[in-house]
Amino acid sequence: MAPRDQSIGPYNGILSEDALGDPNNAHGQMLAWVQPGLDVLEIGCATGYMSRVLAGRYQCRVTGFELNSAAAELALPYLVDLVVGDLERQQDRDKVDR
Questions:
Q1: Which of 21, 52, 68, 97 fits a 20 to 30 Å CA distance from 89?
Q2: Which DSSP state fits 33?
Q3: Of the candidates 59, 71, 27, which has an alpha carbon nearest to the alpha carbon of residue 80?
Q4: Is 0.70 topped by the overall pTM?
Q5: 6/15 Cα distance (integer angstroms)
Q6: Which helix (H) or strand (E) holds 42?
């Protein structure tokens, strides 16, 4: 078993259609603002469960920023770029191409 700090969290990589369409769900609320083809910086992309929706359904170009390297590896197929780092560290923030 992986150490607690490398846990990839509670999501298995899939968001239900109900959650995505629910205006009371944070994921559904966020998607209401998305326009197809956007460049998106997803802070805390985790395993890429939301990146997958953004890239697949909305043809967004998603850059992920994730602290957990195990989760970030799972997100990579849905991203155009990935930064594994800590937002509290300037040197990690500087890795994001503006």
A1: 52
A2: T
A3: 59
A4: yes
A5: 21
A6: strand 39-43
